[in-house]
Amino acid sequence: MAGGVVHFELPADDENRAREFYSSVFGWGFQVMPEMEYSLAMTTPMDEEGRPAVSGSINGGLFRRGDLTAPVVTVDVDDIDAALEQIVALGGSVHRGKMEVPGSGWNAYFKDTEGNVVGLWQNAAQAPDTAGEAAGNDLGA
User: Fold this and answer.
1) Phi/psi at 6 (5° precision)
2) Backbone φ and ψ of 115, nearest 5°
3) How many domains does the structure of the chain reveal?
4) Domain containing residue 34: CATH number
5) DSSP character for 22?
6) What is the rounded average pLDDT for all residues in the chain?
7) In this predicted structure, what is the pLDDT of residue 62?
């Protein structure tokens, strides 16, 4: 569903400490991606298509705190390039342009008119043999 919040990201100064905290408090699991200084946060069970099995739930991630210092929510879009163009036309700005997430889709960050950094997500095209089915990915989009 374009326009829905499909992912969140939390900055961390100490990723191990943050993973231990969220795992202990909420029971979240993590898939560590050291080459990206990023961990996927599994906050909810996934169905067989790779989407959250609990309605209304999303998964997220932890990243090494850098230029982004506050949590980020990510919004699903049908066309990330068109969304970025519209954002700029309406007074926002591109914080980090379109980046491919191999096998899943593309993401980008923008700043809204209030200075908040927000993420965008566009799913990769569906394989021909799954036409008509909802695309699934770790973002739950």
Assistant:
1) -120, -5
2) 90, 5
3) 2
4) 3.10.180.10
5) H
6) 89
7) 96
